[in-house]
Amino acid sequence: xxxxxxxxxxxxxxxxxxxxxxxxxxxxxxxxxxxxxxxxxxxxxxxxxxxxxxxxxxxxxxxxxxxxxxxxxxxxxxxxxxxxxxxxxxxxxxxxxxxxxxxxxxxxxxxxxxxxxxxxxxxxxxxxxxxxxxxxxxxxxxxxxxxxxxxxxxxxxxxxxxxxxxxxxxxxxxxxxxxxxxxxxxxxxxxxxxxxxxxxxxxxxx
Length: 206
Known about the structure:
Elements: H1 2-26, H2 38-55, H3 65-77, H4 79-99, H5 105-109, E1 112-116, H6 124-132, E2 135-136, E3 141-142, H7 143-155, H8 159-186, H9 193-198, E4 200-204
Antiparallel strand pairs: 1-4, 2-3
C-alpha cells in the first residue's frame, strides 16, 4: 500500500514538473507560432459551445459542424503546447530516468526506482513503452494518444474528422487510465499496466 501511494504522489510531482516546463516554453512565441491565436480561438469555441448548449435539440443532439471546426481550430493553436509536453516528457521520463538509474525527481523524493524483472536498470525501449502507456486525463491524457493527436494536428484534417478522432482518443485514454489504476490496486507487486507491457516494476530504495 505504501509503494502504491508513493507511486501516485511521485507521478503527480513529476507531471507537475513537466507541465511547468511545458507552460513556460509554450508561452515563448519563438517556439510556439500559434501563441497569439489561442485566446481568440478559445473565445470563439467557448461562445459556440455555450450557444449550442442553449439551443440544442434534445431529440436530435447532433454537434454542429461549426462547433467541431471551432474545436479543431482551438486545438490547432495548442499543437505546440502538446508537442512540447511530449518533448519534455521524453527527456524527463525516458532519458533522465534512464541515465539517473531509474529515478525521476518524484521517485527520488519517495525513495522509489524503476527496474526490470531482474531488478536492473531497464533499457531505453522499456522506458519509452512505460512512458507512452501512461498519463492522466486530468492533465492531457495517455501519452501515446497525445502523440497521435499531435500528428493529426500537424498533418491537418477537417473539423468533423478531428472531432471524431478526438472523441475516440479521449475515450481510449480514459479506458487505459482506468486499467492503469486498476492494475495498480489489485496487483500485489504494485505493478501497473504499463509495467506489465514493458516488463518493469517499481521498487523501494533502501
